[in-house]
Amino acid sequence: MTASNRSAPLTRAENDLLQTLSARWTMHILLALHASEQSRRFGEIQGVVPGISNRMLSSRLADLESSGLVSRHVAATRPVTITYRLTDLGQQVAVTLNRLRDVAGSSVKSR
């Protein structure tokens, strides 16, 4: 969004993306995927995001995939291997989240 249209109402796509990003655990999952330069399996993500249930992680990954932030890859192995990776849009969002994380960290240190 440019400076000239920041006062314009959000489009449906913008609103949907912001709703997805504001959901619980979403930022943690995006940061976990961003921290790894490679695709991650479900269990690996769950190990980096302690406290998230299987059901919640599955739901959030599906939301992130439908929002275009995460891609899901199924490998025809035995057993089937499913991995998740950030899309280009997901990478852009994760970079911004890391900046917010830095601001939050420096805010805590300055208190």
Describe it.
This protein is an alpha+beta fold. It has 5 helices and 3 strands, in the order ααβααββα. The chain has helices spanning 12-22, 26-35, 42-48, 54-66, 88-109; strands at 40-41, 70-75, 81-86. It has a 3-stranded antiparallel beta sheet with strand order 1-3-2. The protein is globular and about 50 Å long. The chain starts with 11 loop residues before the first helix and ends with a helix.
Features:
5 helices; 57% helix; alpha+beta; globular; 3-stranded antiparallel β-sheet; 111 residues
**Structural classification:** alpha+beta
**H/E element sequence:** HHEHHEEH
Q: How would you sum up the major sheet? A: 3 strands, antiparallel
**Helix content, binned percent:** 55-70%
**How large is the radius of gyration?**
16 Å
Assess the beta-strand content as a share of residues: 5-15%
Would you count the extended β strands for me?
Answer: 3
Give the neighbour order of strands across the main sheet.
1-3-2
- Poorly predicted parts: none
Shape: globular
**C-alpha end-to-end distance:** 32 Å
Average pLDDT works out at 91
User: How many DSSP H or I helices?
Assistant: 5
